[in-house]
Amino acid sequence: MRCPAVSDVFEVSSVASTQNDLYRYTVLLDPDRQNLFEDDLVSYRRYLKLRAIFAPSQGEVRLTPIPQLTISNEARFDKVRFRDERLNAVWLTINPPREGDPWYSQALLRLLGIFVGICIGGPSLYRFASSLLRREPIERGSSNADPDENSQKS
User: Fold this and answer.
1) How many helices (H) and strands (E) would you count in the chain?
2) Is 77 a domain residue?
């Protein structure tokens, strides 16, 4: 049986982390939603990246959703539109980055990443965590490399 919503798993532990009893994995999850945004100001890859860290000596499993988003230079907080009006309503309650800030685009991207990670990543993360609790086997990917780390180096 395969873990629900998981398309691949990559071990990305460093020597230092394993020496400290921390085991890091990148898990690629199939997102619940497609066509999330109304226009091309914001785009995302068709998978949700999840950082899973297992710390056996501490009795912890840490799961962090990391949506793979890009924004155009023209993107502004008030121009971001989701296809789901409920998401738009919640988005507009958040304090936006300050216009004129030299780091505006980076702040907007970070804010969108957190928002999408919580709103959209939640159901996939919940299914993944639930399958871990049921101890269902998870198929590992054929590579030990994080697919995004390789593309960032070029």
Assistant:
1) 5, 4
2) yes
What is d(CA 154, CA 143) in angstroms, rounded to the nearest whole number? 18
Query: pTM here?
Result: 0.70
Quick check: 62 and 128 in contact, CB under 8 A? no
The domain of 90 spans 6-143
Distance (Å, rounded) from C-alpha 59 to C-alpha 88? 38
Q: Has residue 103 been placed in a domain?
A: yes
Cβ count within 10 A of residue 36: 19
| Alpha carbons 71 and 80: distance in angstroms, whole number | 10
Tokens of 25: 């994995």
Number of domains in the chain: 1
Six-digit token pair at 109? 């991207």
Minimum mean pLDDT range among 20-24, 34-38, 72-76, 100-104? 34-38
Rounded Cα distance, 26 and 147, in Å = 9
Cβ partners under 8 Å of residue 75, min gap 6: 41, 42, 105, 108
Cα torsion 143, 31, 48, 84 to 10°: value is 160
Q: Is the dihedral of CA 35, 67, 117, 7 positive or negative?
A: positive
